[in-house]
């Protein structure tokens, strides 16, 4: 007793400070917060499921993606980190839950782990990807069915739906992952982030930080704003441009107070209008905002 | 081209199998699935929040707990793994979200990581805890406010609300963590698991595996069954035994089809009846079930 019994078994009354969330923790939490933002018209949220794509699949996807996110933070090849993240994500019955979100997150996670989470730095990382990254990207399609557009004429050999079978062709032609993204800029909102310094992700992060109230409510608001600004490229792929433009107009009407976002959420689910790319950008925005101090 | 270009940049068309979920992944996923089980009367779920305790706090808690869960899987002292898990969990604005769930999970995670996830083995691990584990347990109370009963007369020195200040007294008296649990068996359903080979957790896991349908629906069902079987000790602590017994009767009525579980969920939230210990046991059951092959 006179000899500080606390020294026998450890630091006694001393208590270590809590562990802080790591970059990977923030990426994982961003995936979980994205699906929790409600209402997020046409997407899975706390109040909406599709028959074969439900809330719990996104939870399992967010847990399963972690080894790939760790690779991104640890400096492994971005393509490989993405492919491993997708492989882990796919270990639930719905298949593709967060493919696009992981694609936009991976360069951001790398930039953050280097201590320089800016659009310019993430854009540089994207631009520096190689043929090996492109091969990883194609391999990722082996793990899940992803709805994609038909490739431009004359580029069938590089159709992502060929998956790993396209790798020798990629390598012959010296196509880098950034080349693939540049090729897809017109038809894919995630590719546009890769080739445009992740402008919408960072802009939406600022808005998440500026808003007040519970984070899932802010997430719902920013999702609607993103959707009202630009047609969702996943809706274009699954339906057509007209449907996507109408979805954007309907989101704008809800934002303007001329429609109820909750009603819109039910309508979109019923019509199978799933603005998944906008949800992916929302996940990226949540990650950037968490890294910049968004409190939960 | 003739020389297998795929060998230059990796395994070419070869695709590695997906990473499997680890024990820690399953523990984290169990925490996330628990809060997703809906309706779970009186607890936060997809359809219910309390003003200061909301769905997103459980997500951040489940992410933050991970370093502690890793320690449990890696063979560190159970008390220390628990204290670190609680410290990480606490890094969100609601404070205590999953204290009890982590307490019941930590021995189960250790048992699973050793490849022997049985009630007997988890009970042996609990029984083998030391004074150092008890000191860790008390330190965990420094990170969060946990509603607890007044200690038995004459044991004020060991009141958990003293937190780390009680550590020298614990050490003087040679109180182990299992001693603390034995002392609390009558008043705490988690302590009863620690001293009773985690019987209810394993039994509920079997029921989760036997049911059909989406896991959150099964989770809701098993939660109701657990609540209908025994009064929730957290409700006893926050209110009184009579309220807890009535809550159990109301859960039984809902199970028997004489009341609507969704209505009960709204009533319990309105009345501030929060069967948190039953939710903690549900998280433990989900972990065991995931380890035994529950598919999401």
From TrEMBL, chains A, B:
InterPro entries: CitG
Residue intervals passing through the bilayer: none
Domain of life from the UniProt record: Archaea
MF terms (GO), sorted A to Z: ATP binding; triphosphoribosyl-dephospho-CoA synthase activity
Pfam families assigned to the protein according to its UniProt record, in alphabetical order: CitG (PF01874)
Coiled coil regions in record: none
Annotated spans, Disordered: 1-22
Name of the protein this chain belongs to: Triphosphoribosyl-dephospho-CoA synthase
Taxonomic source organism: Halorientalis pallida
């Amino acid at each position: 007793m006179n000899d500080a019994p606390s020294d026998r078994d450890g630091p006694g009354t001393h208590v270590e400070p809590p562990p802080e969330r790591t970059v990977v923790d923030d990426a994982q939490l961003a995936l979980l917060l994205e699906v929790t933002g409600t209402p997020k018209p046409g997407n899975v949220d706390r109040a909406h499921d599709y028959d074969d794509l439900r809330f719990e699949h996104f939870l399992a996807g967010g847990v399963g993606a972690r080894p790939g996110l760790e690779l991104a933070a640890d400096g492994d090849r971005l393509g490989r980190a993405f492919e491993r993240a997708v492989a882990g994500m796919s270990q639930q019955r719905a298949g593709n839950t967060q493919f696009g979100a992981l694609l936009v997150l991976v360069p951001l996670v790398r930039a953050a782990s280097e201590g320089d989470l800016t659009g310019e730095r993430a854009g540089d990382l994207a631009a520096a990807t190689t043929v090996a990254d492109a091969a990883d990207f194609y391999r990722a399609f082996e793990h899940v069915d992803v709805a994609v557009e038909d490739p431009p004429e004359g580029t069938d050999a590089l159709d992502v739906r060929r998956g790993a079978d396209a790798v020798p062709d990629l390598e012959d032609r010296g196509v880098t992952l950034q080349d693939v993204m540049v090729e897809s800029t017109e038809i894919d909102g995630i590719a546009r982030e890769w080739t445009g310094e992740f402008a919408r992700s960072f802009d939406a992060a600022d808005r998440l930080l500026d808003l007040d109230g519970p984070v899932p409510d802010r997430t719902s608001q920013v999702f609607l704003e993103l959707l009202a600004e630009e047609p969702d490229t996943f809706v274009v792929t699954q339906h057509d441009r007209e449907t996507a433009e109408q979805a954007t107009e309907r989101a704008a009407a809800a934002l303007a107070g001329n429609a109820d976002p909750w009603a819109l959420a039910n309508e979109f689910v019923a019509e199978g209008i799933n603005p998944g790319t906008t949800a992916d950008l929302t996940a990226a925005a949540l990650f950037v905002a968490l890294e910049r101090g968004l409190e939960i």
